[in-house]
Amino acid sequence: MKKSILLMFLACFILGGPSASARNLWAYLTYATFNSPEGPYVETYLSIAGNSVKWVKQENGKYKATVNVLMTFKDNNNIKAYKKYELNSKDVADTAHMNFQFLDLQRFQLANGTYNFEIQLSDKNKTAQAMPYMQKITVDFPADKPSMSSVELIKSYTRTDKSTVLSKSGYDLVPGIYNFYNEEDAKLGFYTELYGLDKALPEGQMFLLSYYIECFENNLKLNEFAKAKKESPKAVNVLLAEVNIKDLATGNYNLVIEARNAGNEVLLSKRVFFQRTNPRATYSITQIASTDIQGTFAEKITNADSLREFISCAYPVSTGYEKDFIQYQLKKSDLPTLQKYFFSFWQQRNATEPEKAWLGYKNQVNTAQANFATKIKKGYQTDRGRVFLQYGPPNAREGHYAEPNTYPYEIWQYYTLNNSQRNKRFVFYSPDMVTADFILLHSDAIGEQYDPKWKVDLRNKMNSPVDIGESQVVSVWGDYSEDAWDLPTTNVGK
Questions:
Q1: What is the pLDDT of residues 261-290, one digit of tens each?
Q2: Where among 243, 262, 281 does a domain terminate?
Q3: Beta strands, E only, 61-218
Q4: What is the value of pTM for the model shown?
Q5: For residue 379, what is the DSSP state?
Q6: Separation of alpha carbons 312 and 368, rounded Å
């Protein structure tokens, strides 16, 4: 998801919840990269929580908050671009209700390359020290082949004849800072640009521009949330569109944009991760009512309890709708419904050999049971089992079970995750010595539990209580968590 795809991350300057100390500053940052006749540029989108800053009364009787911002782009140790400024809120009359954000958009003209980006934020009206966050940002728009900008999530857009910092291609685009959509969000809007397709395709040949939603866990395309159109290649093709997500179930998803030539070869593609919560969208039995299971492997399974177990163990690789079925309809469904659901589930994964898909997964479930089951949970119900089934075995795994100052823990490393994420890690720990259940404490993978204080939590065996804003721990003898995070060593294929 890095490179030129819109990256969403929880900035390290988020230190606590609404009840946290007044010194804490809440902020959320995203960025996107684009090309232009003047050269490539990076856009940053910064959101500040109104209830995390200090409001000062002005001469007009209203209140204003100010955040000091410093953004720097470095190539090695050379500063290539920077901005230092005060981000001011609008004047507000009442400080009793501050559950809103004020937003900021900046543009930086930068040549192709990889930069060390650093942002520092501090509340001008507080004495707290500025806190930095660093991130590598890559700008990559080669001149000799087609390329694609980031996918900017859009909250709203309007046509405009005037050019402002929000303007692109004749529209003012209000960025969507967050990649989370609740049940009130009926549409997912986005904007992207495709460059150089006029040089990559024969004259007069159209290309197919499509966008759709897929399940994050297994890249299963959801055809009911898909659209496509043919376009003539240009120096810059613009896509500003919306997807109706009113009926999209709770879950983790990717928004996928693709450009394909007449031979159905992918010319350009991008994926953007987002999350959805929507309790109103539930699994409908009518979706499988017409499924024909006669003569299939599912028809041969005539024990309803066995079928329920087979369906339950597929929870780690299920879509949002399918998880809804397992949670709320599995127990009350009759045998024919279970058979149809089970067959339909695996047919979607492998249309020609659904039984082969099931048997391959069943072997993985057995492996998870043998390696990760506890006294109170089956293997697929544990966090390690879930990660194993969802992503496969890790490329490296390191366990520390008897350090004097930490709970027992394991760190798993995946060199490639879902064919898109690189070098991702998972930290599991066991605070309960009785059940020996290893809980997912932290991961830097998209869509997973993220906790910048994971080292503190790991050390809670020795240090308790701790400041919820603390994210650094003092190294002590016998603690190898830092080394294990940097370099897990034990290969796993067991």
A1: 999 999 999 999 999 999 888 888 888 989
A2: 281
A3: 63-64, 66-75, 78-88, 101-109, 113-123, 131-139, 147-148, 152-159, 167-168, 171-175, 180-181, 187-195, 207-215
A4: 0.78
A5: G
A6: 14
